[in-house]
Design brief:
Blueprint: H1 10-20, H2 24-31, H3 35-47, E1 54-58, H4 67-71, E2 75-80, H5 83-92, E3 99-100, E4 113-119, H6 128-137, E5 139-150, H7 156-177, H8 181-193, H9 197-207, E6 210-217, E7 222-228
Parallel strand pairs: 1-2, 1-4, 2-3, 4-5
Antiparallel strand pairs: 5-7, 6-7
Helix pairs in contact: 2-7, 6-9, 7-8
InterPro entries: SAM-dependent_MTases_sf, UbiE/COQ5_MeTrFase
GO molecular function: demethylmenaquinone methyltransferase activity
Pfam family, one: Ubie_methyltran
């Protein structure tokens, strides 16, 4: 059982996700009260993959998030730095081009993709700004980025309830359904430490992305940030 700390040492985070790989998808469905599937659909609509496009799906884990892009006729590359997640994905979807890679040093040429997306993975990267710059580098001019990440609920009373759920309810639920419940304590802590919606938008702009915008899902529990490579 491995729990990463908030200084996000890459080997600790990778090992943590290796531990939870087998039951990761079902655990997410339970802990999100079924919202995870709705969020994945929202990401697919925002990416708007088209036939023949090249889509890089970072922190893709077992490849669940990559499937909608393939269904739209795009060539999707699921990329993750957890070898355990990639191995689990390869067992389930052997035809997908799973690729091991660090978001701060991506193993792809400049401008290789029409769209880059990452869902619930950016806050686990040790250097967020370096990852945003790398995502820009591998995106073709005019291409787009879509980031789906936990954020800050916009209604103050709900924000308080949500914070209590993260730190009090989530760990016992995780113990019941996850193969590595301590990992979800780290995940709860990392959500609380993550920048709010304008904060992440500012970091995208600083990295070089244009036309940056966001919209809230589930009252701001999750936010979808978008940008375009100039």
């Amino acid at each position: 059982m491995t729990r990463a700390s908030l200084d996000k040492q890459p080997h600790e985070v990778a090992a943590m996700f290796d531990d939870v790989a087998a039951r990761y998808d079902i655990t997410n469905d339970v802990l999100s009260l079924g919202q995870a599937r709705l969020w994945r659909r929202a990401v697919a609509r925002a990416v708007d993959a088209r036939p023949g496009e090249r889509v890089l799906d970072l922190a893709a884990g077992t490849g669940t998030s990559s499937q909608p892009f393939v269904e739209e006729g795009a060539y999707a590359v699921p990329c993750d730095f957890s070898l355990g997640m990639l191995a689990e994905g390869k067992k389930r979807l052997p035809w997908m081009p799973f690729t091991a890679g660090d978001a701060t040093r991506l193993p792809f040429r400049d401008g290789a993709f029409d769209a880059v997306t990452i869902s619930f993975g950016l806050r686990n990267v040790q250097d967020t700004d370096a990852a945003l710059r790398e995502m820009l580098r591998v995106t073709a001019p005019g291409g787009r980025v879509v980031i789906c990440e936990f954020s800050h609920p916009t209604w103050a009373p709900f924000r308080t309830v949500y914070s209590e759920y993260l730190m009090r309810a989530l760990p016992p639920v995780a113990r019941a359904v996850s193969s590595s419940p301590d990992a979800y304590v780290y995940l709860a802590e990392s959500i609380r430490e993550w920048p709010d919606q304008p904060g992440l938008a500012g970091r995208l702009q600083k990295a070089g992305w244009a036309k940056v915008a966001w919209r809230n899902l589930t009252g701001g529990v999750v936010a979808l940030h978008r940008g375009v490579r100039p």
